[in-house]
Amino acid sequence: MKYSIIVPVYNRPDEVDELLASLVGQTEKDFEVVIVEDGSSKPCKEVCDRYADALDLHYYMKPNGGPGQSRNYGVERAKGDYVLILDSDVVLPPGYISSVSEELQREPADAFGGPDCAHPSFTDTQKAISYSMTSFFTTGGIRGSKKKKLDKFYPRSFNMGVRRDVYNKLGGFSKMRFGEDIDFSIRIFKAGCRCRLFPESWVWHKRRTDFRKFFRQVYNSGIARINLYKKYPESLKLVHLLPMVFTVGVILLVLTSAVGRLLMHYDDIDRWYWLCAAPWLPILAYCVLIFIDATKQYRSAKIGGMSIAAAFVQLMGYGCGFLSAWWKRCVLGKDEFQAFEKTFYK
């Protein structure tokens, strides 16, 4: 067997249904599917049972341990030469598996990954979030875009492939609760393995369904970046600092405007008007840029407006998590688990 598709699941039976339906429609059939239920209170076993005759499907239930450990659990029971790691909230186009095979035939790779995009059926919020996570104007373009990246490509767990012998040799995913996919990608590079972007092996990725959950996700990503820095100091690049710089910059601009407004109250209005108004110009310019680009991409002014909010949530959520973890780990000297005060799932 060539491929084993590993999917960790936590309380997402409806998403698993859509993912399995898209796997049934694959043009290439040489794969098995391993679903690992990670201590869910809403299991997807009934959903999996409906696809038992259409797919080579294996369902396992285990106590909650996080997505990384669930993937390792699945790979231990897999049979394929390659493991394809997918999140439960992705949907595959019919040619996904065949595009992976074509890339491997063209040029072998030990590990690989592909980009993601929004499906037309996604909600406007999901499309706005997808924009913020894939746009070059939010640094999201480095995560697997066909555009020129600011950093080398590190596969992410929503769409990642690894030769099974390489996976086993490296010990799979670590016990990090979040950022475990980047940790694994770093170890892949350190081992001298060949790692490539497969630009045509893309998936539809739903991500979070509202901005509150999205903020939590990117906040945890900011924390994970500091944890990765403490583990691999060389892994911190300039591009990883940009959301933090953006966050600090926006806060300083707003505070400067507030000072100007305060001075206008106590002094000559005309003298301090510029200090009140000028700091908002770069913020407004960035909002206009996002609005135009997102509106053009989705042909919707509504999504363009929502993408402004999504971009600020993504950059400032990540920046706040980054700053919080930097203070706790680099200044106060706390360990990784103290930096993660809450689990990702809950």
CATH topology of the largest domain: Spore Coat Polysaccharide Biosynthesis Protein SpsA, Chain A
> Number of DSSP helices?
13
> How would you sum up the major sheet?
7 strands, mixed
State the strand order across the main sheet. 3-2-1-4-8-6-9
Helix content: 40-55%
The CATH superfamily of the largest domain appears as: Spore Coat Polysaccharide Biosynthesis Protein SpsA, Chain A
Give the rounded overall mean pLDDT.
Answer: 90
Shape: globular
Alpha carbon gyration radius: 22 Å
Task: Assess the beta-strand content as a share of residues.
Answer: 5-15%
Computed structural class? alpha/beta
CATH class group of the largest domain: Alpha Beta
Residue runs with pLDDT of under 50 for 5 or more positions: 142-150, 337-346
Total discrete domains: 2
Total number of β-strand segments?
Answer: 10
N-end to C-end Cα span? 36 Å
CATH architecture group name of the largest domain: Alpha-Beta Complex
Q: Order of helices and strands, N to C?
A: EHEHEHEEHEEHEHHEEHHHHHH
GO molecular function: transferase activity
Protein name: Glycosyl transferase family 2
Pfam families: Glycos_transf_2
Transmembrane segments: 238-260, 272-292, 304-327
